[in-house]
Design a protein that fits this description.
Blueprint (H helix, E strand, L loop, with lengths): L5 E4 L5 H12 L3 E6 L6 H9 L3 E6 L8 H12 L2 E6 L14 H29 L2 E6 L2 H5 L5 H21 L4 E8 L12 H10 L8 H11 L11 E4 L6
Parallel strand pairs: 1-2, 1-4, 2-3, 4-5, 5-6, 6-7
Helix pairs in contact: 1-8, 4-6
The structure holds NADP nicotinamide-adenine-dinucleotide phosphate (NAP).
The site of NADP nicotinamide-adenine-dinucleotide phosphate (NAP) has 28 residues, from helix 1.
């Protein structure tokens, strides 16, 4: 991958996003590592720069409408025009629909879906001009198959797939691809609270006999962002160790 590519990874402070930022930096990208606060992404930046890469931390609450244009201007002035975007930031507010508050519904949609919409729209102009771009959004197997207690999360993750397919149809002629990756259970802070018996149950449901690691996802994202993946677009690629087979 060319040295000059600038990649934006949202939710890059930990877990899957951190692994993606590190993988793209290894491929020679300059990486804008986003988190809700810039200081949260400092550790990821340190790991990248220690290995000789180039990365800068940026902060913004992606669930809030304002500030995205200023954030993108800041990234452009410090690193250049991004042509790779990974919409990875996400959160859960799990509860049964009967008990769900409007706030919990709205917050999940705002961060997981509206955040991806805003970031993509803000960065698309630069990719159109460059006539090259890679947009990868991290969905979930829950967006494809559902899960009790996660109607808000499933709605946001399923919507990202429809978003991705429509976007792929809009921008393909400009050399831009848009894909989604749908992880199964990955060992991160998001799944750390899972009770041991549930963890064992999930592991048994996989064919490979383990939970996923962030690197299981970052390796796929890295490929989708590469030159070699130019003929793959509008796809939702499940990476779940056979969980949903
Ligand atoms: P994680 O460890 O909980 O990390 C979440 C990341 O999102 C953090 O970097 C966090 O930044 C950022 N974030 C959360 N709310 C934000 C906001 N309002 N504004 C900006 N950034 C925000 O999660 P993960 O497990 O790595 O998951 C990453 C993505 O993969 C998510 O979209 C998740 O839904 C998806 N996924 C995960 C799994 C899994 O099993 N782990 C499975 C399927 C899909 P801060 O550090 O600043 O809070």
């Amino acid at each position: 991958m060319s040295e000059s590519k600038v990649a934006v990874v949202t939710g890059a402070s930990r877990g899957i996003g951190q692994a993606i930022a590190i993988a793209l930096a290894k491929d020679g990208c300059q990486v804008a590592c986003l988190a809700s606060k810039a200081e949260n992404a400092a550790e990821t930046v340190r790991q990248i720069t220690d290995e000789g890469g180039n990365a800068i931390a940026f902060g913004a609450d992606l669930g809030e409408g304002g500030g995205i244009d200023a954030l993108v201007s800041d990234i452009e002035s410090q690193l250049g025009t991004p042509t790779i975007l990974v919409n990875n930031a996400g959160l859960t507010r799990d509860t049964l629909l009967m008990r769900m508050s409007d706030e919990d519904w709205q917050r999940v949609i705002d961060v997981n879906l509206n955040g991806a919409y805003r970031m993509t729209k803000a960065l698309l102009r630069g990719m159109m001009k460059a006539r090259w771009g890679r947009i990868v959004s991290i969905s979930s197997v829950v967006g494809l198959h559902g899960a009790p207690g996660q109607t808000n999360y499933a709605a946001s993750k399923a919507a990202l797939i429809g978003f991705t397919m429509s976007l792929a149809k809009e921008v393909g002629s400009r050399g831009i691809t848009a894909n989604a990756v749908a992880p199964g259970w990955i060992a991160t802070d998001m799944t750390a609270e899972l009770p041991e018996d549930q963890r064992e149950h999930v592991v048994k449901l996989t064919t490979v006999g383990r939970l996923g690691e962030p690197e299981d996802i970052s390796s796929v994202v890295r490929f989708l962002c590469s030159e070699e993946a130019s003929f793959i677009t509008g796809q939702a690629i499940t990476v779940d160790g056979g969980l949903t087979l």
